[in-house]
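Worked example (supplementary).
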Amino acid sequence: MVSGMAGMMSGTSDNNFPAAIRLGLCCIFKNEPIRFRSTTAKYLRQFPRDVQRAQLSTICQHNCLSLLAGLRFVQHYGIGAFRVLSPFFPRYTHPDVGYTITDLPEHQKILHTLSQIKQYQDRHDIRLSFHPDQFIILSSPQPQVVANSINELEYQGLLAEYIGAETITMHGGGKYDDKESALLRFTNNFHRLSPRVTSRLTLENDDRVYTVHDLIPICTRLNIPLVYDVHHHRCNPDGLSVEVATELALRSWDRVGREPYFHLSSPKNGWQEGRPEPHADYIDPADFPECWKNLRITVDIEAKAKELAVLALKKTFTV
DNA sequence: GCATGTCAAGTTGTG
DNA sequence: CACAACTTGACATGC
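After joint prediction of all chains, the assembly is encoded as:
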């Protein structure tokens, strides 16, 4: 036990950023020399199967070690959450060059590193999440799009289980002229997912189509939480205030007894001119909602300067 | 070495 | 009607 005074004076905790707020870093690092590798199907296709698998094996193990290094970094700097990039195991579900972990020559080493990651995140209470990209859509009228999306979600669910990741956050998808029937398709397809995925799945309001107002009913019906992205809400308003949207999101997490996840970013070109959607390098502290400051929540920071932006925001709240 | 074009995938809105 | 934008970068290729 450290005394209050000693705690305040010591190392990395010497700021008054709201203690209950956990900041999260998304996917990659800017300055820190931690890199994730990837590859393309086109490149892999020129090699025979066994060569492909050797290359993929090297990349997967490299990425596992990078994630472990990344977790040590965030732990050291008091960053409490990390979002894992989607191509962590690149092309895993690709129809031509896809694979399973046991296909990889170094799979025993890889499984070992995955379990080290899980152990580390558990010991240091670092929240891990996945955020499938824009092609992953459960509301599409095209069966093939949905089938591909389910495969990809199952892949992320599997990895999430291996590394102890808690959430897989996705968007509502397209509108297709009728949000209501689109969300009905989402609901039907949700029930095709394994418990490994459904227990982790969350919905996030996006900057073009689905708002908090649109998603709250389906979140309630499916008993899944809503990840509230306040930047998207400001880009794509729905008549709800930030305070009310925050309250609705909190309730959805409370219902499942988990710490809420919110997203924050600042517009690259300001709120006045041009499109506000592109993300800025850093977070303008003025964009941090006042009503979040006394909550026990996780806030993922979506900013191009990555770890520098997270640390700068922490510092803003210092003294 | 460094600049450039390309990379699995869907959808919407802009010009 | 084509194309950029989306969480964006990483990589192979060619100069």
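Two points are worth noting when inspecting this output. Residues 26-28, 35-40, 43, 83, 85-87, 131, 133-134, 206-208, 265, 275, 277-279, 302, 304 of chain A lie near DNA strand C (CB under 10 Å from a C1'). The beta strands of chain A are 21-26, 81-84, 127-130, 167-170, 201-204, 226-229, 261-264, 297-301.
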